[in-house]
Design brief:
- By secondary structure, the protein is mostly helical.
- About 65% of the residues lie in helices and about 0% in strands.
- It has two domains: about 1-85, no CATH class; about 105-160, no CATH class.
- It has eight helices and no strands.
Length: about 160
């Protein structure tokens, strides 16, 4: 599941709305040619989309058009995996990402550094940590989540243990 943090960070970058984007939206003809190519399926409904959605799609399309083939293949693979997940699992990941985005910048940095550290571990070490998590009792997991707010499910509260 840890690879989803990276994926969701990338997804967030692709869909984040720029603060300086016009609230009135933009005409299809004002889009960059590379964005028009990527967004061709949206051309007929473009003018009916909310400005925020247009801005997010445009930003994602521009990012996509500048990706190399290998990077595009990875994104497609992750997107296919994302679509195959059960809806509750996708929602839990979205909630975790939302909580991540609400963390102060220093805490976000700590999480990202920890994620990079984890990714850099040998596969055997990552597997050992995953097994350790899976072998924890619910109380041990709860205790760990209390120390790491990003891991805590939204519905959980300290008095609702």
């Amino acid at each position: 599941m840890s690879k989803w943090i990276g994926f969701l960070c990338m997804l967030g970058l692709c869909t984040a709305v720029m603060a300086d984007e016009s609230s009135a939206g933009m005409d299809w003809s004002a889009l960059e040619p590379e964005a028009q190519t990527v967004l061709k399926p949206y051309e007929g409904q473009w003018s009916t989309l909310p400005a925020e959605r247009q801005a997010a799609l445009r930003k994602g399309a521009l990012r996509w058009s500048h990706m190399g083939d290998e990077q595009k293949a990875k994104v497609k693979e992750r997107f296919t995996e994302w679509q195959s997940m059960p809806a509750p699992q996708r929602e839990a990941i979205r909630e975790r990402f939302t909580r991540f985005r609400q963390l102060p910048a220093t805490e976000q940095g700590q999480v990202l550094r920890r994620y990079e550290w984890f990714k850099g571990l040998p596969a055997a070490d990552r597997a050992r940590l995953k097994e350790r998590w899976q072998n924890m009792t619910p109380d041990q997991r709860r205790e760990l989540m209390d120390r790491r707010p990003l891991l805590r499910p939204k519905a959980q509260t300290n008095n609702g243990r």
